[in-house]
């Protein structure tokens, strides 16, 4: 035989909370809220303007890094060849 249920001292019913927090079957505000997720307010359109210029900046930076690697001389290249062997400063 199961023990009798304990008395609820607070009056809080978890089942009622779960039932109240679900989406209602017929939401009266659904039609009013629909504009927030359509047209210019879709998730993609809201995210697209978050970092303006990031794509152009990343391509320009990659192009500059490639230019620097291929065409600019490194001033420290050949540092050891400037000094002759046996010569100490």
UniProtKB/TrEMBL annotation:
<keyword id="KW-1133">Transmembrane helix</keyword>
<dbReference type="GO" id="GO:0022900">
    <property type="term" value="P:electron transport chain"/>
</dbReference>
<protein>
    <recommendedName>
        <fullName>NADH-ubiquinone oxidoreductase B12 subunit</fullName>
    </recommendedName>
</protein>
<keyword id="KW-0999">Mitochondrion inner membrane</keyword>
<keyword id="KW-0249">Electron transport</keyword>
<keyword id="KW-0812">Transmembrane</keyword>
<dbReference type="GO" id="GO:0005743">
    <property type="term" value="C:mitochondrial inner membrane"/>
</dbReference>
<keyword id="KW-0679">Respiratory chain</keyword>
<comment type="similarity">
    <text>Belongs to the complex I NDUFB3 subunit family.</text>
</comment>
<keyword id="KW-0472">Membrane</keyword>
<keyword id="KW-0813">Transport</keyword>
<keyword id="KW-0496">Mitochondrion</keyword>
<dbReference type="Pfam" id="PF08122">
    <property type="entry name" value="NDUF_B12"/>
</dbReference>
<comment type="function">
    <text>Accessory subunit of the mitochondrial membrane respiratory chain NADH dehydrogenase (Complex I), that is believed not to be involved in catalysis. Complex I functions in the transfer of electrons from NADH to the respiratory chain. The immediate electron acceptor for the enzyme is believed to be ubiquinone.</text>
</comment>
<dbReference type="GO" id="GO:0032981">
    <property type="term" value="P:mitochondrial respiratory chain complex I assembly"/>
</dbReference>
<dbReference type="InterPro" id="IPR012576">
    <property type="entry name" value="NDUFB3"/>
</dbReference>
